[in-house]
Amino acid sequence: MGDHDSPISIHGGGTLAKAIVSQEQGHWSVPDGTILSSGSKRLVAFVIDVVIVVSILNLATRGMIANALNISLWSSWDFHYAVAFAAVFLTTHWLYWRLTGLAFSRSLGQKVLGIAIVMEDGSKVESNIWDRRSFAKLLYLLPVVNLYFGVYELARISQRHTHQSNLDLSVGTIVAHSESLPPASRKNIR
């Protein structure tokens, strides 16, 4: 076959497997060498993040933040206190995810587990994307609703070759092991 052209042609670099997957599924190809994060690792990072924020809120409010989930307070005439605590609870989580995302390109829980968030092409996630990601993650904090959406998103992560949740797809991000990202993608990760 030395004189003949190869019957296999790969456009855009990468491995043959990545080229086939990206052509068949009409989707981008993951930066070379990138190891995508599993759903279980992402779930553990989320739990670590919630524990960090709730611990800080408990200290700052001397345990009063628990009223955000107090059913008897929600059903009383003083339900506006529960609404206020819920607003503080959700706003604090939103700020935490947004600010740690901007500062580190990941939350502290993700940092502990060695994963990071980048755009599909490996570039830095911009501020407006962190806003959208942080706001959408608040859904996972709402009692009962979080069970349905959490299980659904974990299933989607395990079913997709890109390990993306619906949230990742909507904003164009991937969650990967930070050390596996190409050096150009790693420069913004702290």
Task: Give a description of the structure.
A two-stranded antiparallel sheet has the order 1-2. It has 9 helices and 2 strands, in the order αααααβαααβα. Helix 4 runs antiparallel to helix 6. It starts with 15 loop residues before the first helix and ends with a helix.
Structural class: mainly alpha
Low-confidence stretches: 8-24
Following the backbone from N to C, one meets helices and strands in this order, namely HHHHHEHHHEH
Our count of helices gives 9
Q: Strand order across the biggest sheet?
A: 1-2
- Name the assembly state: single chain
Q: What is the percentage of strand-forming residues? A: 5-15%
User: Mean pLDDT, nearest integer?
Assistant: 80
Major sheet description: 2 strands, antiparallel
Helix content: 55-70%
What's the overall geometry? elongated
First-to-last CA distance: 49 Å
Tally of DSSP β-strands = 2
Which value, in Å, is the CA radius of gyration?
20 Å
Count of the domains: 1
